[in-house]
Each structure stands twice: as structure tokens, then as C-alpha cells.
Design goal:
- The complex is a heterodimer.
- Chain A is mostly helical.
- Helices cover 79% and strands 0% of the residues of chain A.
- In chain A, helix 12 crosses helix 13.
- Chain B is elongated.
- Chain B contains 15 helices and nine strands.
- Helices cover 51% and strands 18% of the residues of chain B.
- By secondary structure, chain B is α+β, with helices and mostly antiparallel strands.
- Classes of the chains: A mainly alpha, B alpha+beta.
- The interface between A and B is large, with 52 and 46 residues.
């Protein structure tokens, strides 16, 4: 078991590093250009602010060469004189990111006005957790019960409705249903607000209430689209298990159908269910980028989208890193859970 | 997997209502694509982003069938292109007359009207526009001479209902109406009842007469547009584009994206997984670790980064979608091939010294085909929705009117707050229907391959 955990962890770390490397190489050249422009801008602004420096030069060329020297000096200090793909720079960047030091955002700021990427990320993360993790938990609870229910009466009306609802709901994009919901319940019938961002500052005591009210529409949408496929998955696992010999044996002994389903069968369906739960919980941390963009929910997903539209590279790198970390942790937990529930997995290695 | 022959699958599939429904929807979609490609000239769809080619269409107009459910009929947008042409020559004066008949049967005034023409003439002919209304009243609209030219020349012009000359002419005829014409636009006067300012229903005839001296004058292109609020089967968007064309062209594009991505990723995943499982040992280990890496990449963020930094071309996007599509299939087919490998006939083939490739293609892959088909069908909707999602975020290929692209435009122009439902609903429904067709087929196949699920 220890060896299994160790190898999994090593793999995960490797994967994390590779993800980082890919992200950096995709955005690296752009990042350099933006940083260098930033330095030029900064130096020019500083010199312009201080008229005594400008006055001390006799000719324009002298002034320009001074400015250029300043720029070169700062570029060197920041290590930008080497290309972004030099091993030294990539090493430094990755080391910094590992320690959650993502630097400063180019354009975006947190609500408090900090441009530190770490601050921005950790401000948005709880909101995404609030919306998507809540939704995932509700979805999984409804899904497990509905799935168990329809598996106990295969072919019944409940089973058919659940299955068809699952199939139909899974082919609609969540964000499109989101637009429809906004169209219906925010504009046609004005029950919920159209934008999910609360309009009062977070220091106000009524903030929580406002946040929950703004959260209602996206939450309903996500749950509505999500629980069907969960129920269908659970049903399929359960139907498979209900045909096993040991369940039949229990039936012949005379244990009630209800007890068999909710204790024996559900317990045996636990490994795949736990895996999916772990994966969807971590997936929920990223927030669906498109769903948050549609509802204008101020979480990780929208941050990511905003960062990409203005090419705020430190934020992109930071968010990708954080998302990958959560994803890997959940895969890891899912693996462990699988090993815990199903001993065959451990020995297979 | 338990050795079902293709014939058995076919038979079972015919019995599955869901599968038949899926095939039926798919057939309709394919037919739609063919109609789109044959009927709508490819130029139209290339002109999708060229505002100039949509100028004769109305802005954000509802579909015309909406009128069937309304008591107060919305005026339809009419483009009248085939006038009744008369040419009369009397001594020196020649007259070319174009007559447009219009049956106006709506409960509110049109938005505007517009006469587009191009005429070939010499000299300085006189253009007179007038309208004969259902109540017999004739209104003079315009009387203007075309720019003078000594030789033969071609002159094109658009005469808008907002033209000052038209307004002036109408106000000169204000004694015909029993209410004040001040501050009313020309179309509100032309289509109004005499007693009150309400729309007058019935047959209107618009006359365009071109009088010339000593010469043959011709009007080549002659179109009268009565601007309405309803147009076409699917309405138009804010940029005056006919949504029916966008939706129709979206069908082959969506099918193309979905099918290419799913087939390519399933084939890739299948070969990869089977090879890893068959080879086993070190090869398997290395290949599966690589698989783990791709599996752990957050797909949507990476797709977004790729489309922003590299290119948003639709073909590259298909490639990107494939990168993330094959991983799950590779895992499953590896474990399947691990099972098949242990069977006697594979061992026998091995002992006989057959080549690896031959064993894989002759003995292992055929066993996995039913699973492959089911996976292809099931992974199509995901590809379509992902592309639609990326396009919706504005990261798609703007030169192709995909459904996601239409929804992106709808969102940018605030279709939801403005209540332009015909811009939001149909693209989403099309995405869902297409997805549904493949999910139906996939589930039907899945039920045949895993009989346990049915019971």
C-alpha cells in the first residue's frame, strides 16, 4: 500500500510539473513581451516624473541612451535578458510557482485592489466553492437516491423518467440552459437578478443574504442539468450489482429489497461512486468557466475567462496551476478510495 | 465484448426504439446538411460576416410564423424584386414604369420603405414615385431628375423613406388626411387610414415611372423593400443576418466537428490502448504514464489557452479537441486488450510467430469494434458542446457560423435582456438535438454490448 501511494504521488508531481511546463511554454513568449513593455513604460514614467534628470542632459541622444541603460539594467535584474526558454529562467519560474508565488497581475485586481495574483485567486476560490461545490453536493445526494430508487424498480415509471431525463439533460449545454434561465427568470419574470455578482460591498452585513439570493439562479441551473446523469450512473452501477450472486442469495434468505438496496448494494457501488464524487468535487473548484461567464459569477471560472480575454498571463498561469493541483489531488484521493474499497486494485500494481 | 457478431448487433439495434430514434434524427440532420450545402450557395455563408451583403434585411426581426399566433399581426419584411414592367413611347417621350403590388395585412406600420435601383440612361430623365392605396387614394411620393449625362451611363441609388423630398411631398398633400401629419414619418402616412393614424389594410401599388426624352431608358435592378419586424423562418439578428442560413450551415459544421473529433480520438485511443495492453511490461508502463499526464491536464483551460495563443482556426481546434479526447478510451481499451490477450487463440497466434501488428489488427481490434462504435457515438456530443462553448466565449473561428458563434453574437448584443428569443433558442435546441441523436445511438449500442444494463 505504501509503495502504491508513493508511486502515485511521484506520478502526480511529475504530471504537475509537466502541466506547468506546457503552460509556461504556451504563454512564455507573450509574457516576456508584456513584461519588457512594462519595464520601458515604467522607466519612461519615472524619468518623466522627475524633471531634474531630464534637465541634466545636454542632448536628446544622451538622454535616450540613459533611458536605454536604465531599461537594460532592469531587464537584467529581472533576468529578462535571457529568453524565456532558458533552463535557468524556467527553473526559477517553476520554483516560484511551486511556492505559490505567482507575481503580480498585469491588469486584473482583487476586489480590495490588490494586484497580487495569490490574493486574487484566494479571493475568488471561496465563491466558486460556495456555488459549485454546493451544487455538486446537492447533485450527488439527489443523484444517489434517485439512482438507487430507479434501480430498485427497473423498468418502472420512475426509472424511465429518470433515464430519459438523464439522457436529455446531458445533451444540453449547461451554459445555454443558463442563458435561457436568465431570459426566463430574470427578464421575462423578474424573480432573480440577471447578474450573479452581488451589488453591495462585502463589508456590509447584508452581503451574505445578497450573495445567496444572487446564487439561487445559477445553483438551480447547475443542479437541474447535473443530477440526471448522476442518477443514471448510480442506477447503472446498482443494476449491475443487483444481479450479482450474493444479492440473489440475500434475497432468497428473505432480507427486504429496501435493505438490500440501501445497505448491501449501495456499499458495493461505493467505489465508482466515490471516484466520480471526488472527481466532480475537484472539477467544481475550477467552476465551469462558461457557466460563470454566463451568470457573471465572480469566481475562478470568470477570473480565468477575464484573464484570458486581457491576456493577463500571471493570472492565467496561477489559475491553471491551482486548478491542476486540485484536479491531481482529487484523482489521487479517488485512486486511494478505489484502493480502499477494492483491494484488487492495490495488488494489481 | 463477449463475442457478439455484427449481425447480432444489427438485429438488436433494430429492436431498440432509442437507437432507431437516434438514427432517424441523424438522418434528418444529414439531410438538412445536404440541403444547406446544395441550396444555399457557399458564397452566402462566406459573406456571413460581411455586413454589406445583409443590408436589405431587417434588424432583429422575429420569424414570420409568429404571426400565426398573434391577433395583432406584425408587419413582415418584404423584399419586392419582380415588378410589373411597362414601356410606353409617345413621340419624343418614353416612359418606363415599374409597378410593385403589395398586400399589406398587418396591424402596425412598417419600419420604413426603401427603393433600390440602377438605371441605364442618357440625358436627364425624371423619376416619379407614387403609391395607389387600397382606398383608391393616390399619393405622390417623389419627383426627381437623375444626374445629367450626355452619353449612356449607369446610375445606382437607394431612395429611403426618410428622404426629405418624400416628406415634403407628403406634407403638400396633407389636406387628404383628417389629422395632422406633423412629426409623422413617411411610412406612417403612406400606410395610414384617412380618418385616424392607424394602418390601412389592403393592396397597395407602388409606381416608379422613369420619363426620358428621345432615348431608351432602362431600370436594371429594381427592388422595393418594405421594412418590417418579421422575416424568414428563423428571423434575423442585430446585424441583419438571416438566422435560417446560419442555423442551416451550422448543421454540417457541427456534424463535421463532432464526427471528425470523435472518430479520430476513438481510433487514436483504441490503437494506443490496445498496443500498450498487448505489449505489456515497460512499454505499457511508459505509455500509461503518458496517458496519465494528458488525463490530468485541465482540458477546457488548456483549450482556451491554445486557441488564444496559437490560433482559433476551426481545423486546429478539431486537433486540440482530439488531444483531450482519446485518453479515456485508451484506458478502457487497454484493460480490454489485457483480457483478450490471455485468450487461447491470441496465445496460439503468438506461438505460430505471427507479427504483433497482425495479431492486434486481426485478433484483438475486431473484438473491440462494438465498444469503439458506442464510444464514437457517445463522444460526439461532447465535442460539439465543447466547440460551441469555446465559440460562445468568443474563442471560436469567426469565419464559420457555428451554433456557438451565433449564441456568442446573441450574448454580445444582449439578446436575453432584449427578449430576442429567436436568437437564443434555436441554436441551443439544435446543439441539443444533435447531441441527443448521438447519445441515443450510443446508449442503444451500449445496452447491446453490456446486456447487464438492460435487464
Amino acid at each position: 500500500m505504501k509503495r502504491y501511494v508513493a508511486t502515485r504521488m511521484a506520478t502526480m508531481f511529475g504530471v504537475l510539473m509537466i502541466t506547468l511546463l506546457i503552460t509556461i511554454s504556451l504563454v512564455g513568449s507573450n509574457m516576456d513581451t508584456i513584461l519588457k513593455q512594462g519595464i520601458v513604460f515604467q522607466v519612461r514614467a519615472e524619468v518623466a516624473e522627475n524633471p531634474t534628470i531630464a534637465e541634466s542632459f545636454s542632448s536628446v541622444e544622451e538622454y535616450e541612451s540613459f533611458v536605454q541603460a536604465q531599461i537594460d539594467q532592469r531587464t537584467k535584474i529581472l533576468g529578462l535578458d535571457e529568453p524565456w526558454f532558458s533552463p535557468q529562467r524556467i527553473g526559477v519560474t517553476m520554483y516560484k510557482i511551486l511556492l505559490l508565488d505567482f507575481g503580480h497581475a498585469t491588469f486584473l485586481t482583487s476586489d480590495e485592489g490588490s494586484s497580487n495574483v495569490k490574493d486574487i485567486l484566494f479571493e475568488k476560490l471561496p465563491r466558486t466553492v460556495l456555488l459549485f461545490t454546493t451544487a455538486t453536493i446537492i447533485i450527488s445526494i439527489i443523484g444517489i437516491f434517485l439512482g438507487a430508487l430507479s434501480s430498485s424498480k427497473v423498468g418502472s415509471i420512475v426509472d424511465r423518467i429518470t433515464s430519459s431525463f438523464a439522457i436529455i439533460s446531458s445533451s444540453f449545454p449547461v451554459w445555454w440552459i443558463g442563458i435561457l434561465m436568465i431570459f426566463l427568470f430574470a427578464f421575462t419574470y423578474q424573480i432573480f437578478p440577471a447578474r450573479a455578482t452581488p451589488d453591495i460591498p462585502s463589508s456590509d452585513p447584508r452581503y451574505i443574504g445578497s450573495l445567496l439570493y444572487h446564487m439561487a439562479l445559477p445553483l438551480i441551473t447547475i443542479v437541474l442539468i447535473g443530477f440526471g446523469s448522476w442518477a443514471y450512473l448510480v442506477r447503472n452501477f446498482m443494476v449491475g450489482i443487483m444481479q450479482e450472486d450474493f444479492i440473489n442469495a440475500k434475497k432468497t434468505i428473505g432480507i427486504s429489497q429496501k435493505k438490500i438496496i440501501y445497505t448491501h448494494a449501495l456499499k458495493n457501488a461505493a467505489p465508482p461512486i466515490a471516484t466520480i464524487l471526488a472527481l466532480s468535487l475537484s472539477g467544481s473548484l475550477g467552476g465551469a468557466i462558461i457557466t460563470e461567464a454566463v451568470f457573471d459569477w465572480p469566481g475562478m471560472g470568470r477570473l480565468y475567462f477575464e484573464a484570458i480575454t486581457v491576456m493577463d498571463l500571471p493570472v492565467i498561469i496561477g489559475a491553471t496551476y491551482l486548478l491542476t493541483v486540485f484536479f491531481l489531488i482529487s484523482i489521487f484521493i479517488a485512486d486511494l478510495l478505489y484502493g480502499f474499497f477494492d483491494p484488487r486494485v492495490r495488488t494489481e500494481q | 465484448m463477449s463475442g457478439i457478431t455484427p449481425q447480432e448487433i444489427k438485429q438488436e439495434f433494430r429492436k431498440s426504439k432509442m437507437g432507431i430514434a437516434g438514427i432517424a434524427i441523424l438522418t434528418v440532420l444529414v439531410a438538412t446538411s445536404i440541403i444547406a450545402m446544395v441550396w444555399i450557395p457557399i458564397e452566402t455563408f462566406q459573406e456571413w460576416n460581411n455586413p454589406g451583403s445583409w443590408i436589405l434585411y431587417p434588424k432583429a426581426a422575429t420569424p414570420i410564423w409568429v404571426n400565426m399566433f398573434l391577433i395583432e399581426k406584425i408587419p413582415e419584411h418584404r423584399i419586392l424584386e419582380k415588378p410589373y414592367i411597362q414601356t410606353i413611347s409617345q413621340e419624343e417621350i418614353s416612359l418606363t414604369s415599374h409597378q410593385f403590388g403589395l398586400n399589406f395585412d398587418y396591424d402596425s406600420f412598417p419600419n420604413d420603405f426603401l427603393y433600390v435601383f440602377s438605371s441605364e440612361y442618357s440625358g436627364s430623365p425624371l423619376l416619379k414615385m407614387s403609391v395607389i392605396r387600397p382606398d383608391g387614394l393616390k399619393l405622390e411620393l417623389l419627383s426627381t431628375s437623375l444626374p445629367h449625362s450626355n452619353s449612356k451611363t449607369i446610375h445606382s441609388e437607394r431612395i429611403f423613406s426618410t428622404d426629405k423630398a418624400i416628406k415634403k411631398n407628403l406634407s403638400l398633400q396633407s389636406e387628404k388626411f383628417q389629422f395632422s401629419l406633423d412629426r409623422l414619418s413617411s411610412e406612417d402616412i403612406v400606410f395610414s387610414k384617412i380618418q385616424t393614424n392607424e394602418p390601412l389594410k389592403g393592396n397597395y401599388i407602388f409606381l416608379v415611372n422613369l420619363y426620358g426624352m428621345n432615348s431608351e431608358n432602362q431600370i436594371h435592378e429594381s427592388k422595393l423593400i418594405i421594412g418590417g419586424k418579421a422575416f424568414g423562418m428563423m428571423g434575423t439578428d442585430e446585424l441583419r443576418r438571416d438566422l435560417a442560413i446560419g442555423l442551416l450551415w451550422g448543421t454540417p459544421l457541427a456534424l463535421f466537428i463532432g464526427i471528425v473529433v470523435s472518430i479520430a480520438s476513438v481510433v487514436l485511443g483504441l490503437l494506443y490502448g490496445v498496443y500498450a495492453g498487448f505489449k505489456g511490461k515497460k512499454t505499457d508502463e511508459v505509455m500509461m504514464r503518458f496517458n496519465d499526464i494528458i488525463y490530468a491536464l485541465p482540458a477546457l483551460p488548456f483549450l482556451i489557452i491554445l486557441s488564444v495563443t496559437i490560433s482559433n482556426s476551426i481545423f486546429l481546434m478539431i486537433g486540440f479537441l482530439m488531444i483531450f479526447g482519446w485518453v479515456g478510451i485508451a484506458k478502457v481499451s487497454r484493460s480490454m486488450s489485457l483480457q483478450i490477450k490471455t485468450r487461447g487463440y491470441v496465445d496460439a497466434a503468438n506461438v505460430m510467430g505471427q507479427k504483433d501488428s497482425k495479431i492486434i489488427f486481426k485478433h484483438i481490434l475486431p473484438q473491440l469494434l462494438p465498444y469503439a462504435f458506442a464510444s464514437i457515438a457517445i463522444s460526439v456530443p461532447a465535442a460539439i458542446t465543447t466547440e460551441a462553448g469555446l465559440s460562445f466565449l468568443g474563442l471560436g473561428d469567426p469565419s464559420f457560423p457555428t451554433w456557438g458563434q451565433i449564441l456568442h453574437d446573441a450574448n454580445t448584443f444582449g439578446a436575453a435582456p432584449r427578449g430576442l428569443w429567436w436568437w437564443i433558442m434555436p441554436p441551443g435546441i439544435m446543439i441539443a438535438i444533435t447531441g441527443l441523436a448521438f447519445v441515443f445511438i450510443g446508449n442503444a449500442l451500449d445496452a447491446i454490448i453490456n446486456p447487464k444494463l438492460k435487464r
